[in-house]
């Protein structure tokens, strides 16, 4: 993200209020039907999704109606499939044609699931997932959740959910399968990064409460903030953490964004403002198509001097709002980034209410760092790239944290 990317997911940015859209663009040809006398009545189809105004198009919709009619005439038990379900299926296919895993049409049951996600408490296993290289992938497990406790990690590939292969499965459908009644079990076939063979992991579902932030003052004077998400209250909690940091009179700050799948854009902008002068670009939304970009700027709290020693930990589970914040700090040379290349979730989704119980989530722009780098295309490359090996995990060694500590205690000139 932006949240609840990563979470899962994302976790996505809903920058605009639910709006109406002429999604019956799929049926642009309702009044221009050519060559078929057995078409459904126009008024009947329009009423399924609410009365809409057709949009002018030169597209030939006769193949659509030919398929519609052949389904009705020839498919066994076609009468058991409602016109509404066929329309929803057609809309889903239209959105799938964008070849963008973040643009999705939610039918009524899926829309409810999506809206439950935004509320922040839900039943499941506690992972943010996305599609990476056409494979369902764990962006990050959430702290102290069932998935976290069975050692699910960022970058894990989910090959099966129960007995269903995930190839070609959308994120939203995967979430629906993973969710379930609290206390029941879901089996995930996982391929850990570096392993040759996948293994099945059974996880008992539970109520998931999304964590936000922890702080710690180390004996060497380094103040550590572990931020788990860019939730609605994270900006306020981050402000309190910085106040706590100032009371210790330390000049060494370590922000751990590993496994943080993002969340709210406004939280990332507000948090960046503690380190940047007013008016500085935090992130740019690039809409393409000769549309003017939207620039989000620092509010200019800027309370730290150049003497601040600031390091940020990232990995391939750092996504969306995490990348916005870390990218701004890196571009303005306010902090060094340490760890692994970030996830690369830098697109902007708008949520549109299509009908009272269906939703369209559609990509409308991509995020650029202050220097103009596309987060989606490149992710963030750390200043100090350090991988955690399987041996490190077995021996419970954290080379990324160790490098950050070394850097903060022996601060180089930027």
Automatic annotation (TrEMBL):
CDD domains: cpPDZ_CPP-like (cd06782), Peptidase_S41_CPP (cd07560). InterPro entries: ClpP/crotonase-like_dom_sf, PDZ, PDZ_sf, Peptidase_S41A, Tail-specific_protease. The keyword Isomerase does not apply. SMART domains: PDZ (SM00228), TSPc (SM00245). This is Carboxyl-terminal protease. Keywords: Hydrolase, Membrane, Protease, Serine protease, Transmembrane, Transmembrane helix. One of its GO terms (biological process) is signal transduction. It comes from the Bacteria. Residues 123-179 form the PDZ domain. One of its GO terms (molecular function) is serine-type peptidase activity. The keyword Membrane applies. GO terms for cellular component: outer membrane-bounded periplasmic space. The chain crosses the membrane at residues 17-36. Belongs to the peptidase S41A family. It comes from Candidatus Nomurabacteria bacterium GW2011_GWA1_36_15.
């Amino acid at each position: 993200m932006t949240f609840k990317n990563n979470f899962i997911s994302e976790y996505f940015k809903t920058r605009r209020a639910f709006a109406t859209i002429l999604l019956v663009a799929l049926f642009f040809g309702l009044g221009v039907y050519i060559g078929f006398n057995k078409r459904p009545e126009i008024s009947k189809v329009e009423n399924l999704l609410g009365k809409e105004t057709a949009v002018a198009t030169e597209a030939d919709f006769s193949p659509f109606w030919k398929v519609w009619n052949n389904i009705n005439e020839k498919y066994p038990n076609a009468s058991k499939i409602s016109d509404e379900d066929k329309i929803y299926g057609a809309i889903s296919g239209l959105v799938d044609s964008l070849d963008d895993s973040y643009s999705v049409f939610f039918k009524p049951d899926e829309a409810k699931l999506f809206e439950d996600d935004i509320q922040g408490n839900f039943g499941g296993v506690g992972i943010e997932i996305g599609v990476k290289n056409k494979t369902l992938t764990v962006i990050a497990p959430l702290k102290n959740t069932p998935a976290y406790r069975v050692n699910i990690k960022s970058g894990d590939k989910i090959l099966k959910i129960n007995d269903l292969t995930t190839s070609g499965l959308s994120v939203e459908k995967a979430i629906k399968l993973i969710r379930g009644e609290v206390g029941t079990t879901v089996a995930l076939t996982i391929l850990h990064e570096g392993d040759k063979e996948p293994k099945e992991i059974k996880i008992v579902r539970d109520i998931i409460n999304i964590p936000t932030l922890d702080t710690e003052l180390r004996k060497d004077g380094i103040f550590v903030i572990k931020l788990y998400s860019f939730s609605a209250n994270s900006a306020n909690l981050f402000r309190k953490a910085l106040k706590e940091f100032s009371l210790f009179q330390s000049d060494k700050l370590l922000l751990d964004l590993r496994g943080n799948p993002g969340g709210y854009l406004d939280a990332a902008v507000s948090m960046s403002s503690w380190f940047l002068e007013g008016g500085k670009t935090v992130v740019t939304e690039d809409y393409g198509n000769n549309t003017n970009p939207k620039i989000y700027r620092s509010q200019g709290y800027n309370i730290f001097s150049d003497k601040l020693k600031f390091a940020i930990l990232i990995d391939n589970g750092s996504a969306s709002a995490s990348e916005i914040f870390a990218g701004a700090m890196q571009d303005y040379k306010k902090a060094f980034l340490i760890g692994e290349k970030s996830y690369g979730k830098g697109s902007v989704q708008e949520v549109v209410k299509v009908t009272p119980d269906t939703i369209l989530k559609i990509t409308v722009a991509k995020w650029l760092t202050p220097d103009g780098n596309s987060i989606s295309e490149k992710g963030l490359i750390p200043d100090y790239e350090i991988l955690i090996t399987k041996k490190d995990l077995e021996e419970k060694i954290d080379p990324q944290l160790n490098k950050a500590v070394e850097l903060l205690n022996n601060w180089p000139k930027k």
